[in-house]
Design a protein that fits this description.
Blueprint (H helix, E strand, L loop, with lengths): L10 E2 L51 E8 L3 E5 L7 E5 L3 E5 L7 E5 L12 E6 L5 E7 L5 E9 L2 E13 L11 E3 L5 E5 L21 E5 L27 E4 L6 E4 L6 E5 L5 E7 L14 E2 L2 E2 L14 E4 L7 E6 L12 E5 L4 E8 L2 E11 L3 E6 L5 E5 L3 E7 L3
Parallel strand pairs: 1-20
Antiparallel strand pairs: 2-27, 3-4, 4-5, 5-6, 7-8, 8-9, 9-10, 11-12, 12-13, 13-14, 15-16, 16-17, 17-20, 18-19, 21-22, 22-23, 23-24, 25-26, 26-27
Length: about 400
């Protein structure tokens, strides 16, 4: 349900004295913005228990190791194609490669290195295969720093490069807060996470404005529709609202760098990178009608930021932790649904780009419980991935790609 931020019980992460270094923290420079515009929208309420309680072994008993699979050039995203055993990786420099066997050299699938900007929060940032495996979608910033979501038809074990088609273009006012993730939801639609456009403090008020795609979670049907490059799902929450973009599914996001769907429940988990005080994890339960406001820039986590008050109808994070003390940017992960680590089933696994510690907690009745570090630290923890069996992978911007395996494997 909608909850007043100042009164919401949220578990704060216990900070550990880790020596993980932060070599490329997301920039947050620039002026703070003024008061965001007044908005209206649907008020569908998520359930008080976004995920079912975990039965069986407790998270405290989970032990993991990391098995290194390959070393790539700035890997930032992993995707799997239905019916294909390969693991596909997006490299931030502008390439997609396929890893077909452990220890094998990756196959080059796509190279657009000459077309992407290479700023610290720019590049080839995300990708996803369509549910039928017939198309690959990539999200990248061009040499001018603007966002493109582009489609390629798959062909055998590669791509038909001649089929290339731009699906979505979004002009970016600054070089940071581009979002970049792409995920197909259980409903078959493509979810596109966009940051607020950058600088610091959301100076243009994009997070709370329904007239822009920035600072939003978008939901589209990416194939051409009625002469347009993509379709709008008819049940999107703002389809019939004057002055609002129909592509918007949720708003009030600062930089939803990584997000995922729980493959068992359908809940949407969003890791939203903070400004200077709080890193947050938000949850939209399956069955929501959309239109949820996650608060930025009225709030940063549960803290009032630009005029936020107890009266604002925003959705508080299920989990937050202080920025600083080794942390700088939350890296959203997955609810583990694999078979290799039974004690981890039902726990949400995430991390922080600078601190690098893999963390987990279990959501029960809307509250984060059993939070703990899992004992592994990854330098430059940029992203997580999930294979067809629900097993987890960790991607480091420094190059290594790891599979999460049971301790002692």
């Amino acid at each position: 349900m909608f909850r007043p931020r100042a009164r919401t019980k949220v578990l704060l992460l216990v900070l550990f004295s880790l020596a993980a270094s932060c070599t490329s923290a997301p920039p947050d420079d620039g002026p703070d913005g003024g008061s965001p515009p007044e908005i209206t929208g649907p008020t569908s309420e998520p359930s008080s228990s976004p995920s079912p309680s975990q039965d069986g072994p407790k998270l405290a008993d989970a032990g993991i190791d990391l098995q290194r699979l390959a070393v790539l050039e700035q890997p930032v995203a992993l995707s799997v194609r239905p019916g294909d055993e390969a693991l596909y990786f997006a490299e931030k420099v502008g390439r997609v490669v396929a890893l077909r066997e452990d220890g094998a050299d990756p196959d080059l699938i796509l190279d657009i290195t000459g077309e992407v900007s290479q700023g610290s929060e720019q590049g080839l940032l995300g990708m996803a295969f369509s549910p039928d495996g017939g198309f690959l979608y990539v999200n990248y910033t061009d040499v001018l720093g603007h966002t493109h979501v582009t489609e390629f038809e798959t062909l055998g074990d590669g791509l038909d490069l001649g089929s290339r088609r731009d699906v979505l273009f979004v002009q970016q006012p600054f070089s940071n807060h581009n979002g970049g993730n792409l995920v197909f939801g259980p409903d078959g639609y493509l979810y596109i996470g966009l940051g607020d456009g950058g600088s610091g403090g959301d100076p243009d008020g994009n997070g709370q404005s329904l007239s822009t795609l920035l600072g939003k979670m978008l939901r589209i049907s990416p194939r051409p529709s009625d002469g347009d490059p993509y379709g709008i799902p008819p049940d999107n929450p703002f389809v019939d609202q004057d002055g609002a973009r129909a592509e918007i599914w949720a708003y009030g996001l600062r930089n939803p760098w990584r997000y995922s769907f729980d493959r068992q429940t359908g809940d949407l988990w969003i890791g939203d990178v903070g400004q200077s005080e709080r890193e947050e994890i938000d949850v939209e339960p399956a069955g929501s009608a959309g239109g949820l406001n996650f608060g930025w820039n009225l709030f940063e986590g549960t803290l009032p930021y630009e005029g936020g008050s107890d009266d604002d109808q925003t959705v508080a994070p299920v989990f937050e932790y202080p920025t600083g003390s080794g942390g700088c940017a939350v890296t959203g992960g997955y609810v583990y649904r694999g078979a290799e680590i039974p004690e981890l089933v039902g726990a949400y696994v995430f991390g922080d780009f600078c601190r690098g510690s893999l963390e987990a907690f279990v959501l029960r009745d809307g509250e984060a419980t059993q939070q703990r570090p899992l004992g592994e630290v990854v330098d430059g923890l940029a992203s997580f991935g999930e294979d067809a069996n629900g097993e987890l992978y960790v991607l480091s911007l420094t190059g290594p790609v790891y599979r999460v395996v049971p301790a002692g494997s």
